[in-house]
Design goal:
21 helices; binds 5'-O-[(L-methionyl)-sulphamoyl]adenosine; elongated; single chain
Amino acid sequence: MDRAYYVTTPIYYISGNPHIGHAYTTIVADVLARTSRTFRPTFFLTGTDEHGQKVANAAAAAGKSPQEWCDELVPRWKALFAAYHIEYDDFIRTTETRHVEKVQRVFEHLRESGDVYRGKYEGWYCVDDETFWLESKLVDGRCPTCGRAVQWISEEDWFFRLSAYRDRLLEYFEHNRDWVQPRSVYNEMMVFLREGLDDLSISRTSFDWGVPIPGGGVIYVWLDALLNYITAIGWSEDEARFRTYWPASVQLVGKEIARFHTIIWPAILWALSETAPEVVFAHGWITVDGQKMSKSLDNAVDPFSLADRFGADAMRYFLLREAPLGSDFSYSEEKIAQRRNSELANDLGNLLQRTLAMLQRYRDGIVPGRKGSSALGGRFEPLPAIVRARIFALRFREALEGIWELVTALNRAIDERKPWELHKQNRADELDAVLYDLCEGLRWLAILLHPFMPERMSEMWRQLGTPERIDEDWSSSLRAWGGLAPLTQTAPAAPLFPKLDTIAQT
Ligand code: MSP
């Protein structure tokens, strides 16, 4: 049995409504988890980051208590993930007792081990990014990440001895060159490390929306938040469960928060005598006019209306096909519509419709037997292993490109072998062979694309009439070309991806 696979997303600040950028990371995690679940124990964690000044300010502006505000917003995030067919195993909220208790335990532990000490923090703070900044890092006196005004704070705080972990971090980075991906982010983090590390203030005293520290103050929201990855799987509570999943196989983060996850996070874990995650992957941004899409820049796109207009699965496809995971890409409705119409409606949807229509016309909708070997089968049998390897290397775009070679080959088979002529000329065996290959190819596509477009591929599966489960282990369901049983009764239905102008009218 393979070791369990544990994938996480950042936990989202609930200072407002979610946007498509938040759905993006969670969809990526869902594709990984769905692929992994077919053959090994898998755990997919997401959730919400509810403490801190940013959320407290948002609640105050809405005239609510922070807890009330969070309780009202969490269902919107859950609804978003449901709308995008995301199946997480757990959704952690940092205000839950199961988390808060363990965060306090971590603090005690760090105090006992001597990793924290009392000191005075004086410096700049960006509330929007919940980040302390050295004066030298500010750009024109503003936050270097988001460009907003920073505030001066002066507090008696607890400090974490981050500087003491610098040598170990450098050594770890040097010996594990793939632990932070992509390489551009790894290199950037090395620059930070080489510049030197300051100790980190891990408490705040000027407001109280956070995990309380005995003796006063609350825990700095980033320490509180990072710990979700271990509190959710039972750190200090359920040793067996914790050891099953930790260290995480891959932690997905946006590139703006790579520093927290690749410098501060491993140091904290080491202070707790735990290991660092196996891989942290920092993905790129969805941009609008060259800028990161964000609620505060007021350029955010409502993910619910996108799912309504383009279809949640088409959006999932677009987000993973448009750019390699580590790159930024610009948001454009034309591009979404274009990919949906050409790749999903024409290449894939039409292929299913034409195949099932021909099968209906020539064979009463029943999958024929096939005599002899299949050139298509020979060519595509290695595909599942290739796709799986690309998915776990987080090369989703290349995984989809690989799958599309099969789509193209099946469309070409129709154009070249012209089943309607084979029918006219009574070449029954040849007609059976083409029709069988088309149906078998579609079955492979439904299985391979299921992690990407779970709802639409289940519908395709239903139309193909296949009795087994779509999410069976590929090493059995896609072991060899020819798994589709002859005599299967297909069930053609409405197009998988109706052309967009049709949708607009409904
Ligand atoms: N709460 C922190 C994370 C704590 S993790 C221990 C946080 N939250 S956030 O809500 O501001 O952003 C979370 C994540 O949303 C980002 O890391 C990123 O994955 C995703 N995105 C937000 N805007 C995005 C884009 N415009 N494009 C792509 N992803 C984006 O930071």
